[in-house]
Each structure stands twice: as structure tokens, then as C-alpha cells.
């Protein structure tokens, strides 16, 4: 592990430490649901500014064979770990503006330091944008979201939060194997680098699948197994179509089956999350 990698690893360890601390103090699944929601908000923001907007680039030097996938690792440390973990800490413990300002200053300083160490680079982004977004939007949002998911949810609000909790699981299970195992790639011609193309398509794909999951969960099925059959069929047909028109290329035999398998697994998890959201904060585990 080189110099760059240690800094990103340090942030990851801090993030995990924060989540373990929250769990040790608040043994309720609501903190995990809040974390998932904040991860998805971070993913949606990054889809716009980082993937399609080209705002900045990370250099963790962990994935050697492709610089864009390597940059994605840095993005995951930020948007899957440290930023949502701090937002979860703020929301669960209802921390005031002093704490919000402190954590904003910490991440602002971290960004400044990473820039000086040349392990992170701005294109058109400014550190001030990060400060403003965290201080006035993202961190306060954590407190608002936690109040919402602590109550029993129904109707459209239940559907929205079910989507926000399910989408990040789908997104991670979709792109992480691609980055590390090169099991598939998407070719659309949107960007020069196939890895950028793949990341962009995957970022949209997981949103569409999460919407489908939400619809399937909300339907009252007479036979529970039917929704799994429908989801597996949709995944299988989508894979065939994308392959046929030349967008998808699979490089290992298990690739199509993995996406069917994990969709079925996450659909089960989504059902459990749905029940938990309906109960409110009374549940201790998902």
C-alpha cells in the first residue's frame, strides 16, 4: 500500500469507527436506515457533479489497471463512508450547529489537505462548494431524515424512503464487482474511457432497478415467490437486450447469474426494510 492509499484507508477506518460507535450507543436499526438514505443522497449528488459533471478526481492508487475506477474508490470512501457516517452521527444524536460546523470544518480541512498532498484534484469544483453543501444542506438533512424514519411511514413517503434505503445497496453491489473483478462493462460512447461509461450507466441503472424494487414490494402479491420470478425475469431480459444491442459486454461466465442472484437477495432485504419503515423506531433490528 502506497502513500496515497494510506490516507484514504485512514478515512475509511474513521468512518467505520463512527458507525461502530453509533451502533454501540443506539442499538436500533433506524441508524442504519438513516445511513443508507444519506449514502443514496450522496450517490445522487455525485452522479450529477462527479460522474456526469467531472467536478474532481481522486488518486488513492488502489486499483492499478484503470485510473477512473481508482478514482471511484476515492469517491466511495467519501460518499459511501465518511460523509454519510458523519451525517448519521449528527442525525442520530441530534447534534447542534456547533457540531455540524465542527464536522464541516473537519471535512473542509481534509479536502484542502488532500489537494495539497496531490491525492485529490479539482477540475471546476471549489472547496467552498463542499463547505456550503455540508453545512447548510447535507448535515442538517441528516437530522430531518432521522426524525422522519423514526415514525411509522405510509403511502408515498414510505415509498420514497424505501427507494432511498434500497438504492445504495443495489448501486454498491452493481459497480464494486465491476471495478475489482472486471466482470462486465457498458459501452455507450458517452465518455472516452469505457470505465467512465460503465460507471455512468451503472449510476442510472441502479436508480431504475430501485424504483422497480419499490413497486414490486408495494404490490400485494398473492404468492410471495411471484415477485422474485418477475424480478429475475426483468433482469434476465434486460441483460439479453443490452448484450444484443452492444451496450453490455460480459467477460466471465458468472456475470449474468450474479446480477440475477443479488437482485433476488436485495429484494428480500428490501421487503424487510419496508416492514421496518412501516413500524417506525420501535424495531431494534432489520
From TrEMBL:
It comes from the Bacteria. The keyword Transmembrane applies. The chain crosses the membrane at residues 6-24, 31-53, 73-90, 97-115, 127-146, 158-180, 200-221, 228-251, 257-274. Keywords: Membrane, Transmembrane, Transmembrane helix. This is Histidine kinase N-terminal 7TM region domain-containing protein.
Amino acid at each position: 500500500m502506497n502513500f496515497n492509499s494510506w490516507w484514504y484507508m485512514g478515512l475509511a477506518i474513521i468512518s467505520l469507527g463512527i458507525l461502530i460507535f453509533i451502533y454501540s450507543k443506539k442499538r436500533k436499526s433506524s441508524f442504519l436506515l438513516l445511513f443508507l438514505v444519506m449514502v443514496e443522497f450522496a450517490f445522487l449528488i455525485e452522479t450529477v457533479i462527479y460522474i456526469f459533471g467531472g467536478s474532481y478526481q481522486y488518486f488513492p492508487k488502489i486499483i492499478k489497471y484503470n485510473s477512473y475506477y481508482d478514482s471511484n474508490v476515492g469517491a466511495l470512501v467519501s460518499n459511501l463512508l465518511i460523509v454519510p457516517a458523519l451525517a448519521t452521527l449528527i442525525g442520530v444524536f441530534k447534534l447542534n450547529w456547533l457540531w455540524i460546523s465542527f464536522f464541516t470544518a473537519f471535512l473542509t480541512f481534509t479536502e484542502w489537505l488532500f489537494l495539497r498532498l496531490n491525492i485529490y484534484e479539482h477540475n471546476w469544483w471549489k472547496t467552498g462548494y463542499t463547505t456550503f453543501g455540508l453545512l447548510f444542506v447535507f448535515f442538517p438533512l441528516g437530522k430531518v431524515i432521522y426524525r422522519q424514519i423514526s415514525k411509522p411511514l405510509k403511502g408515498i413517503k414510505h415509498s420514497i424512503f424505501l427507494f432511498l434505503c434500497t438504492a445504495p445497496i443495489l448501486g454498491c453491489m452493481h459497480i464494486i464487482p465491476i471495478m475489482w473483478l472486471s466482470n462486465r462493462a457498458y459501452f455507450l460512447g458517452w465518455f472516452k474511457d469505457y470505465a467512465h461509461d460503465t460507471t455512468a450507466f451503472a449510476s442510472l441503472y441502479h436508480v431504475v432497478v430501485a424504483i422497480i424494487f419499490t413497486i414490486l414490494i408495494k404490490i400485494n402479491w398473492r404468492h410471495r415467490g411471484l415477485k422474485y420470478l418477475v424480478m429475475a425475469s426483468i433482469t434476465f431480459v434486460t441483460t439479453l437486450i443490452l448484450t444484443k444491442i452492444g451496450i453490455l459486454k460480459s467477460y466471465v461466465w458468472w456475470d449474468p447469474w450474479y446480477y440475477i442472484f443479488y437482485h433476488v437477495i436485495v429484494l428480500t432485504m428490501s421487503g424487510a426494510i419496508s416492514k421496518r419503515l412501516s413500524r417506525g423506531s420501535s424495531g431494534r433490528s432489520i
